[in-house]
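Progress report, Aim 2. The chain analyzed during this reporting quarter is listed below.
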Amino acid sequence: MERKERRFRRDGRALCIFVSERQITGIPRADALYERFCTSAEHHAEHRVTEQVSAQYEADENPRKKFRFSPALCRCRIAVTCREDAVEVQGEYVAAGRTVCRFLHRWDPALGLILLPGRRRMGKNAGKIPIFRRFFR
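Predicted structure tokens for the chain:
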């Protein structure tokens, strides 16, 4: 498990803590994709979440705010499960208590390609698995 932790500071105060945990799949294309996902999540935490927390801190009029202030926690986690026919990868990025992105991928280790999820026709939203998407706008 590869773990990376960064603290984003402004004026000597930690505003955001970013923790990234990632397992290596052994498939070069998959590892490159998940490395980009973790880098994008870190960029989001550094710029967007830090700015939001900084604005909230400045807007607070309470003189005791420094005693009750705690930095926002952002966590990006990618877990790998190896099976006989495929490698399943589950990922999630949670920023300040809100899930920004979540995905489930199945990779074919022989081909090195992602497998599309099977669709069940049981209902309007049944059988749909979210596929990796860009979550920055």
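The radius of gyration is 18 Å. The longest strand covers residues 72-82. These observations will guide the mutagenesis work planned for the next reporting period.
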